[in-house]
Structures are given as C-alpha cells and as structure tokens.
Amino acid sequence: MSAELDSLYQEIILDHYKNPHHKGLRDPYEAEVHHVNPTCGDEVTLRVHVADGVVADVSYDSVGCSISQASASVMTDLVIGKPVAEAMAVHEEFLALMQGKGTVEPDEEVLEDGIAFAGVAKFPARVKCALLSWMAWKDATTRSLEETP
Amino acid sequence: MSAELDSLYQEIILDHYKNPHHKGLRDPYEAEVHHVNPTCGDEVTLRVHVADGVVADVSYDSVGCSISQASASVMTDLVIGKPVAEAMAVHEEFLALMQGKGTVEPDEEVLEDGIAFAGVAKFPARVKCALLSWMAWKDATTRSLEETP
Amino acid sequence: MSSQTAARLDGLLPELEVIRADFPILSRTLADGQPLVYLDSANTSQKPQCVIDAMVDHLERHNANVARAMHQLGAESSEAFEAARDKVAAFIGAPSRDEVLFTKNASEALNLVANTLAWARGPLEVGEGDEIVITEMEHHSNIVPWQLLTQRTGATLRWFGLTDEGHLDLSAVDDLITERTKVVSLTWVSNMLGTVNPVAAITKRAHEVGALVVVDASQAAPQLPIDLAAMPEDERPDFLAFTGHKVVGPTGIGVLWGARAVLEALPPFLGGGEMIETVRMESSTYAGIPHKFEAGTPPIVEAVGLGAAVDYLSAVGLDAVHAHEQALTGYALEGLATVPGLRVLGPLDARERGGAISFEIDGVHPHDVAQVLDVRGIAVRAGHHCARPAHARFGVQSSTRMSSYLYTTPTEIDALVEALHYTRSYFKL
Amino acid sequence: MSSQTAARLDGLLPELEVIRADFPILSRTLADGQPLVYLDSANTSQKPQCVIDAMVDHLERHNANVARAMHQLGAESSEAFEAARDKVAAFIGAPSRDEVLFTKNASEALNLVANTLAWARGPLEVGEGDEIVITEMEHHSNIVPWQLLTQRTGATLRWFGLTDEGHLDLSAVDDLITERTKVVSLTWVSNMLGTVNPVAAITKRAHEVGALVVVDASQAAPQLPIDLAAMPEDERPDFLAFTGHKVVGPTGIGVLWGARAVLEALPPFLGGGEMIETVRMESSTYAGIPHKFEAGTPPIVEAVGLGAAVDYLSAVGLDAVHAHEQALTGYALEGLATVPGLRVLGPLDARERGGAISFEIDGVHPHDVAQVLDVRGIAVRAGHHCARPAHARFGVQSSTRMSSYLYTTPTEIDALVEALHYTRSYFKL
Ligand SMILES: Cc1ncc(COP(=O)(O)O)c(C=O)c1O
Ligand SMILES: Cc1ncc(COP(=O)(O)O)c(C=O)c1O
C-alpha cells in the first residue's frame, strides 16, 4: 500500500508542495487566466509575461492538493526563460506523460523535476490535478501572444 | 381465446356499436364538453340539456372503438329522462362495475344493457374506453346545473 | 405467404434464431400459454441479455457516482460512463465525443434544443418575425417543444404538409425555408408512416438560409447506419436526437448530438451539479461541453446499458439490421395486402420506408383490432402513436401499427396476417 | 474506539449483517485484495439485490412502453410503473399519488419548478421586484436553477447565511421572507454540513407571506421518515424533491412531489408524448397531472427499481434507519475528534445532523486524504461536494466527507479513523 502511495507522492513532489517556486502574482504580464477543476474545486489564477518570444515570467496564485500545487511549481521552473516554442514542446511532453496511463518513459533531460509525476499517470483521477496549471499556462501564453503582436 | 373475446364483445355491445342511440349533436343544451383519451385518441363531444332537475337530453358526436361507442349509446339510454340525482347514481354504479376488475356483480335493474360491460372490467386497458362518455356526461351535467340556477 | 416462402426472403439476418436467443423476453409465454409475437418495437425495443448483464454487473460491482468520486469505485464508474459516451459517439459517427450529450429520452433532447434557443441571446436568439419549420408527420415530442418555443418567443411555427403517399410535400420548400427560418426540425424516419425523409437535401437547403437543423433520429437510429462525420458538412444536421430504449438499451436515457460551435454558443439548459465551473451565490460560470448540459447525477447505469446496446447492434451490423427490416417490411406489406379492406398509411414501397407499418381496416376500430391480436399473443400498437396531426392529415383518428426489429421473423408476420383475417371474421365482415 | 465499544452502540440496526448481505457490492474486494469500506453514500447509495432483481425481472419478462401500449406486456409494464408511483407516494406520505412526478434526478425536479415558474403568467408569475430566497448551504442543484430564473425574469435572488456552527442564520428571517418573496427553496438536510433545517417553521413563515416553498429532500429522504399528509397544511411545503440513486434505487430517476393546486396552475415543462391531451399543428392541450409533467417515455425500469427500493427501506423502517445513522454519526464524531488537527464543518451534535460529515485536516489537502484512504479501500469524497458557497462561508476550498448509510458498521468508522491517523503520519505531520 505504502509503495503505491510512494509512487504517487515522490519526495520531489512533496518538496515542491511545501516550498512552491515562483508562487504569487507579479507584474508585468500580458494575460491572466483563471482555471478551475470543477469536480474538486482546485483553482489557479495565472499570469504570463512574454518578451521577445521568450517566457519571461509566469506567476500564479492557487489552491489545491499536493499534486496540483507541486505541478504548478515544477511547471514554472521548466518554462520560465525558455523560448515560447520550446516551452510549448515541454508542455506537450508533460501532457503525453500524464495521458500515458503509466506506459510512457519520462525524459529527464526535458522534464527535469517533472519526471516525478510519472507515477501520477497511474492514478486517472489525479491526472487532472497535475495538468491544471499547465493548461492554464498554455491558455495564458496563447493569449499573451495575441496581445503582443 | 374466442371465449375471452366473447366476454368482452357481447352481442349487446356490438349492436349498440353498429346502431348507436341518440347520436348526433342537438339543441337545446346548457353545456357542451369535449373529452379525449390521450393515449388512444378516442374523442367525444357531448351536450347535456337539463330541465326541471331532469336529464332532458344528451346528444353527442364521437370517434372511437366499439367499447367507447357502445358505452356512449348505452349511457344515453340510461340517463335520458331520469332525474339528475338518479342518473348520477347510475353513473356511480357503472363506475363501480368498471373499476371492479371483474369482481363486481352488475345489477340489471339499474344498468340494463350496461351489464354487457361487465366483461370489460377484466381488460384494464379498455376500462378507460368504456368510461370516456360517462365522464363527459358527468362533467357536462355538472356544468349544466351551474348554468341553470 | 407460407413460412417456406418466408425462409427464402432475401436480406433476413442469417442467424436469426441465435439473435432471438439473446432476448430473454422472446421466450416468454402469455395468457393461455400463447407465445409472444412482439410487433411493437417502434414503441420500445426488447433488450438482449448482454445489456441486462452489463447493467447488473455495474450495479453489483462498480456502482458509484461519476466525476465527483475519486475512489476506486468512482474511477471505475466514471470510466464506464465515459466509455459509454465513446461508444455512442462511434455508433453515430460523431465528429467529436464531447458533442454527445446524455438526456433522459429523445423528448428531453428535443426540448433541450428548443429551451436553450428560447433563452439564447445574440445570433441564435429567436423572436418575432423568426420562423421555425417542422413537418406534419412529426411525433408529438417534435411538435410540442416548438409550439412552446414559438408561443413563448413570438416566433411563427410553420410546417411541411404531406402528399397522399405519405411523403413530405417538398413543392413548398422555397416558401417554407426562407431567410426568416431559424430552425428546421424534422424526423428522419416517421414512427407512423414509416417514411424516410430526405434529411441531407433539406439540411443543405436550410443551411443555405442560415437555419439550424434538428433531426429526430428516434426511429432512424435503431435501423439505419448513421455516420455524421462522413456527411458533407453542409448536409450534416446541427443536432441529432434519439432514445435509448428503442435501440435495445434501457429507458431513462436519450442522446442529443450537437455540433460543438452551436452547443458552445447556447446558454445552459438545467442548472446544478456537474454543469458548473464555479458557483458563487451571486452567479456561476459553466463547464464546457458535454457537461454544461448534464446537470445532476447522470443516467449512469443507463449509459452502461446503452453502451452495451449500441455495441450489440454494431456487432450485428446496422447494414444487416437495415436489410433485415427492409426484407420483413416488404414481406409484411405483401401479407397485409391480402387482407380485404385494409389500407396502409404511408409509402407502399419497402425500400422507401422504415419498419413501422400503420394501417386501418374498414369496419373495425384499431383498438378492437389490437384487442383481438392481443388475445392471440400478438403485440401491436393502436391509437395515434403520438402522431395525431399525421393521422388527421389522412382523415383518420387512429390506426393499428405493427413494427418489427432485428429479432422479428417472417413467421411472426404470418401470424399477424392470419390474425387480421380472423379479426375480420370475428367482427363478421 | 474498539469494535467492542462499537458493538454496544445504541440505535444500530440489530440485523446489520443480514442487511449487508443484501448489498452485493459490499462483498467486493478492491486492488490488493482490500475489502471495500464504502463511506460515500451521501454521494450515491449502494443497491440491494431486491432492487437489481426487480429491474432484471422487468427487463426480461415485462418490458414494454407504458400508457400507450394496450397489449399484455404493455398492461404489465404500465401497472408496474404506476404501482411504483403508489409506492413512492406512500414513502413520503403524499396527500395524492397524482402529485408524484417522476423526473430524471433531483436536479431536474428542482429545475422543473424554476423553469415552469419562469413561464408562469398570472399569480405565479415571477418578475422584477419579486424575490427568491435560498440558503448558503444549498447544493449547486438548488442554487443554479434559481440564479437562472432570477437572471431571466429580473427577480432578485437572496439567501440565508450560516452561523459558525453550520446552522441557518435565522436572525434575518423577517428581512429575508417578506411580501416580495415568491419562493423559498431550501434543503432539508445539508449534504455538506449535515445540518437538519427547521423546514416546518420556515415553511410556515413563507406561507404567511404567500410564498411557495420548495424543499430539497435529496439527503433527507434516505434517512428521515417523511409524512407529508401528516404535516399541518401551513407547514407542508409546496414541493419536495429527491433522487432515486440516494435511496438505494437506480440512477435515471428522481421525484418531485407538488401540491395539486400549484402543479395544476403551472404551465408545462417539457413538451411531447404522454403530456398532451390533443395535439394540432397550431396548438395543443395538455394532460392532467402527473402526466402533464412527464414528457416522453418515462424512466420505466428505473421506476420499478425505485419502487423496490422504497419498499426495502420501508421494510427496514425509516425510524430504524434514522436511529442507525444517528448512532453511527455520533460514533464517527467521537472518532474524528481523536485525530489531531481535524476540524469538522457543521454541527457537532449528532442529534442535530444527518449522516454526512465533512472535515479538514491541517496540513493535508482533502484530495490527498482521500487518496491515502482509497489505497486502504476506504471510499470517501473530497472536494466541494457541489456546495462551493458553503465551503467559501467556512473559508475552505474543499473538504473530505465521510457519509454512512444503513449498511455501514462501526468497524468501518474505526477503519476510517485509523486511516486518518495513518494519513497524518504518512505526510509527516
Ligand atoms: C442536497 C442535494 N440536493 C440535490 C442533489 C442532486 O441530486 P442529483 O445529482 O441526483 O440530481 C444532491 C446530490 O447530489 C444533494 O445532496
Ligand atoms: C419519431 C419519434 N420521436 C420521438 C420519440 C420520443 O422518444 P421518447 O419517448 O423516448 O422520448 C419517439 C418515440 O416515442 C419517436 O418515435
């Protein structure tokens, strides 16, 4: 039992949960979005600042479970500072991992701390938690690009 | 099989069906009603003329199956010419027969040709057919009395 | 008209006895030990064992609420429920599975469209000067919702009349479908006349004037292969409705497919759990499709049953079911023609119609026909079959209707025809 | 907190093991061979064998459409369906069985009232200046319909707030329920806080100002004896709604009871087959109650299942079920109090509440709590339980909820409490 739990609650996840990176809402930003998981109530408000085609900042305020909070933290680590196209590719890779039902082998080169979420893919009810902030980021980034011609 | 059918389709019923009494709409009348059996579409338009507390005339126009048509014909025979209270009592008696699921013994003194409907009570789906015109008559008579103070 | 002839009928399902064995009720005997001859499938279809078993397995092993429950049973139940949506989407070739909404029956599906249009604002808004077009052969469930909508919005209800042969009178199409038309709602297959309507052509015409098209597929889904994604876009309706209990599934569930863009533009229908995004006392925001239109606990075990049902039909093959229906319908039309004084309402060519055949017999009221048949174990429907205007069009108040399905045999049609002859003699005609 | 103590609990159902044996799912094992500890009955209840068997028997032997079918199967099916209405009427002590309407769930029942009021003209009409009063502890299904109604009619939505103990704040009653109030809609038992509301007193007050009262009995019907006919008329609500799947019946069916005079005065809800009297293309007339509000093929096999369900509960006895729930709730509240950092949301006295207990644990998110419990086979709910405003009132975004029912044992409560201790240690608290 504990082994099953441990595969979900990796140390890395619990660390990010306790000490989330980049949390709090900051200026400047071009787009702010609010995403909700209607079944459980997890919520995130998220801002994206894009400059010169690079994800210059991602800031957020959120409530939710360890998985959704840690995921937001890891996500910001991964995308901030990357060119938008590259960050989107990371997003795709994370999405594929989450939707793989535990059959996808994560690439540590690309996903870094994100590989800790490999175990989440085996818990269908929790996949949405892990994806909440990523979906919000993608949405906000797309809007940012529309704002900044 | 045929015996079962014969208990439903008594000769008296088929006779009234082929040669209905008092059919056609006539003047004078105080109330006209239109009743429908929504499940099968049987319809009756029925007028009642009450004079001096007596059911002076009942006229009707109707479409429907043998049971509903014969029932209207028998009903007019039974109520026309009777004091309202007495006619209502006949109505009650017929109702009790129909709702008795075949356990009520009909009283020929009161129901005359109406006793032929005893077999209908064993066919729950047809009870509504037999009652359609009786219900219309009761409704119209009540309204007639309201019209004539 | 002997069963020898019958056995040679082209198009019958080859393993008919195997199929019949799948339906437990068909081996039931009625009063007086009569075998059941069930010819009322257009009213509701019988259920194969696999549908019943799927429901029982769900109730005995996986029952839990969906979406909201995160535990193991909840995950199993949610998966079964959403898998049913996938199956239904595949059954009708829906362009996207999120466009498949579960309702309680076809009637609710049609009312959902009419009701949300009543509250729509902007381009979809319906008001005075707008017209809604239906047909004279609709089921009451595709008439009354539009009467309510037009009465409530001040719009005008118009309809296609019928030809004497029971087809839509298309001569008036340019008068009926105009710039004023907001919605055209019509049945694909008539439940009374059996007529198969030219849905693609009418949809195309309606789309030219910018109208939405709603197709009532309650009688089509059981017997015609449907592939929405394969339809040219201008011929594809915007909505398609059908009901679970007529496609060998349970009662308590219906389906509305709607094009994503339209569903997204419509306001919500019923409010409550599952259809929300965030609720505050002051106001709420709503979930995306399909959940936006599924307030409250959905028909979970019914979806499981419906999923098994459409899987069953797909395994038999809708082309094969359709061929079977056509063969039986042709055979029945021939048989009915031998009964003196019998008049079929609707097209007389089996290739132009579905498997429901309504008829009258001179001198015997439909109730009385059905009664005599019932005493012989033959179940048909008598009345207006929820299509009173179509009956009025043909000057009749009601009719008798036989309707076959994939488990119906030519021998059952023989029994019907013989019983109709008997009925005439019983009433001394 | 040992099972020795538990066995001595007053009020437990005496034959608990016999009752448990009636519910096939309770003997299921989950992943890793864990036995199922089902503590999510406020979300949906499990089904006894007799309910499943009644449904199977109907589908295998009596399936036919109702009302419209006059043959033997049709008569059997109609009789079973209408008998279910009688059983439900008896279950809630309805003054008349015709006042019992079948809907698809409680949500539809509540929306039916709100929707027909939106279209009502005359004395029941809702418009600007009118007020609808609800409470902050409602399920989303008793909030969103009234938001939609008020948004669409220009009326104003108001609500009772909550005290810190989780009761309705009745101090504002005279300000809230006034001559402007058209409708007061409230839950009898809260699905989140467990609070049992003073429905009779509020109804009386609302009737004094001429308002209609709608009671959401979704959580009350499973656990409280209800006898509408026995209530003094001024304390009897005008509507009462509940849902089949929470009273050991199937999904796909809900119940709305409404006082005859009000039901008759309201316009129809959905249009279609069964709810009509006569249909002409130009306009239609409608059937009397209950059929006026039951468009289309009703949930037939679901009604059969629900009839068996309420018979089952009545045979056990609602008083006995209620006593069982109170005993377990008291026992659970004691057990939960031993978990450090655990805070129960809602009344702490078992006698003032129903059997759903929501709580938070400092430092562990409800999702994570539910996850750890699930790995141990314990099914609870985590989230806002479709009562987000009530959560917001208590400053939390979500909670964990355990909910018992007549098949729940004290040993299962022990397992929960132990697992909560384990959860804290797993997360190093
Ligand atoms: C208090 C309350 N009201 C309404 C509902 C809605 O019931 P349903 O989802 O069956 O429509 C529920 C249950 O989910 C409930 O607990
Ligand atoms: C053509 C047609 N439309 C709509 C319906 C309504 O289906 P339901 O009663 O399941 O809502 C039916 C069947 O009764 C039908 O035959």
Automatic annotation (TrEMBL), chains A, B:
<dbReference type="Pfam" id="PF01592">
    <property type="entry name" value="NifU_N"/>
</dbReference>
<feature type="domain" description="NIF system FeS cluster assembly NifU N-terminal">
    <location>
        <begin position="9"/>
        <end position="129"/>
    </location>
</feature>
<dbReference type="InterPro" id="IPR002871">
    <property type="entry name" value="NIF_FeS_clus_asmbl_NifU_N"/>
</dbReference>
<protein>
    <submittedName>
        <fullName>Fe-S cluster assembly sulfur transfer protein SufU</fullName>
    </submittedName>
</protein>
